[in-house]
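2024-03-11 09:14:02 DEBUG pipeline.ingest accepted 1 chain
2024-03-11 09:14:02 DEBUG pipeline.ingest length=170
2024-03-11 09:14:03 DEBUG pipeline.predict start
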Amino acid sequence: MDLWEEMPPYVTGGDMIMQVTLEKTTYARPPARFEAGTPPITQVIGLGAAVDYLNEVGLDKIADYENALLEYGTRLFKDIEGVRIIGNARHKASIISFYMEAAHPHDVVTLLDQDGIACRGGHHCAQPTMTRYAVPATTRASMAFYNMPEELDALAESVKKCIRFFSAEE
C-alpha cells in the first residue's frame, strides 16, 4: 500500500472526506485528504482587490512617494545625535534601520510603542549583517505609501525622547 494512503489526515474539515457515518469515516484519496477546509476564497478575492487598487494608484507613483519618505526620514535621522543608520544603499526599500548606543532596540521599540509608533527591533533575520556592522541588533522603521511625513517627524521626536530617557539612566 502507498504510504500516502496509509497516513491519516492531521487536520480534519470539509472536502477531505468521502463519507462520514456514526460508525466510520472514509477519507478522500491523497492529496485531498490533507487539504481540509474551505479553500481561502476570501483571501484570493482580497488579493485581487489589493492588486487592482495598487494598479489604480500606480506602482511608479507608489515607488516615488516611498522614496521621498525614505529621503525625508534619512535626513531627519542624520540630524539625531546618538543614532547610527545601518544600510545606506543608493537604491533601497523605504526602510530605515538604526542603532543607538544608549539602548538595545528591544527597549527602544517598547518606548516607541508607548508613543503609538510601531517599529521592529532585533536581528531581522540578518545576524551576519549585524556582525558586519558590529551591532547587536537594530530598530527598523518601515514606510509605505500610506504613511505621511508627519509620522516620520513623530518617530524622530520619539527617538530623541528615547535617547534622553536612556542617557538619563547612566
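2024-03-11 09:14:41 DEBUG pipeline.report The chain has two domains: 3-34, 59-169.
2024-03-11 09:14:41 DEBUG pipeline.predict end
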